[in-house]
């Protein structure tokens, strides 16, 4: 494996030119980058659990957990620590190295936040990487998560800045960037990606990926979700996207962010296996593993184990705690280092 060069100054023209490559040329280039940075036979497995479901004050058009839509979900309280740890242990036993917990919040509240910190500590004690997604954070919350040992914070940009306004009105794209900056500056790994199938144009996909790739450091984890068209949401009847366009987006993500884990995320239960195989060839090297995502179904554990075996892929065995992405400017560039 050679060390691929990471860039942080991609122009929209350059990214659009990648999307415009012939499909075979794009896949060839993405796969070449992929094998220069990773073991192409390894797939990282993350398991998901919803620790606080439904009743969210935000109005994200795609989300069944928003209180603004009638998706038929019961609003639930924060789940108990014991249940979380039992699920995390079960996820570890079936081979997951990362446990991700999601809460349907605009931002964490003072009553529940200390309990989430307990969950983070508990998952870390099991020897797993821990990721949470809790909405917007302030500096004190970020520091508390860091002190609890949090490995990753998931906070998606979802789409381009321009298209974002058509999808969410209760927060701005800039709000998302602000939380991401706090998380990154605290030294917590960033998990940040998007959703395809929100009625966006190819240019919106290019802009989303450019936004991610031009951050001061590449998000260590980049989830690419295919919209789960949940009943009762405004996007319930959104048009299906061409699976090859999904593969293209994964390929461009791999080229722009050579050292990041690119996760083939929500939507796999409706994606045929050949498409998933193309995504793995194009550079996806992580999946959500477990029968359920947050509130909707995932591909099942049995299906996934069979798929991995048929593709000669194996689960990544150890948690990749160390950063994989490098920084545009070395983190301590300002400090004099004398020989
Ligand atoms: N409330 C927090 C937030 O939005 O930041 C965390 C939980 S939220 C469910 C986490 C992410 O799930 C969203 O940012 C979005 O990218 C993804 N998501 C939600 N509903 C989805 C759907 N129907 N299909 C695909 N991805 C979805
Ligand atoms: C991400 O990018 N996808 C996950 C996770 N981060 C938190 C969520 C997918 C949710 C799919 C719809 C649901 O199950 O509610
Ligand atoms: Fe709430 Fe997150 Fe769903 Fe938006 S995506 S409605 S913030 S749970």
Q: Please count the beta strands (DSSP E, at least 2 residues each).
A: 10
- Strand percentage, roughly? 5-15%
- The helix tally amounts to 11
Helical content class: 25-40%
Uncertain stretches: 321-325, 330-339
Q: What order do the SSEs take from the amino end to the carboxyl end, as H and E?
A: HHEHEHEHEHHEEHEHEHEHE
Ligand set: S-adenosylmethionine, 6-(5-methyl-2-OXO-imidazolidin-4-yl)-hexanoic acid, iron/sulfur cluster
- Residue-averaged pLDDT: 94
Largest sheet: 10 strands, parallel
Structural class: alpha/beta
Shape: globular
Compute the separation of the termini in Å: 29 Å
Any idea what the radius of gyration is? 19 Å
Describe this structure in words.
- The protein has 339 residues and is an alpha/beta fold.
- The protein is 37% helix and 14% strand.
- The protein has eleven helices and ten strands.
- It has helices at 12-20, 23-37, 81-93, 113-125, 139-147, 161-167, 173-185, 202-213, 243-256, 273-282, 301-310; strands at residues 42-52, 98-103, 129-133, 152-154, 189-191, 194-196, 221-226, 261-264, 286-288, 314-315.
- Strands 1, 2, 3, 4, 5, 6, 7, 8, 9 and 10 form a ten-stranded parallel sheet that branches.
- Helix 1 (12-20) packs across helix 8.
- It is globular, with a radius of gyration of 19 Å.
- The chain starts with 11 loop residues before the first helix and ends in a 24-residue tail after the last strand.
- Residues 321-325 and 330-339 have low confidence and may be disordered.
- The structure holds S-adenosylmethionine, 6-(5-methyl-2-OXO-imidazolidin-4-yl)-hexanoic acid and iron/sulfur cluster.
- Residues 56, 58, 60, 63, 65-66, 104, 135 line the site of iron/sulfur cluster (SF4).
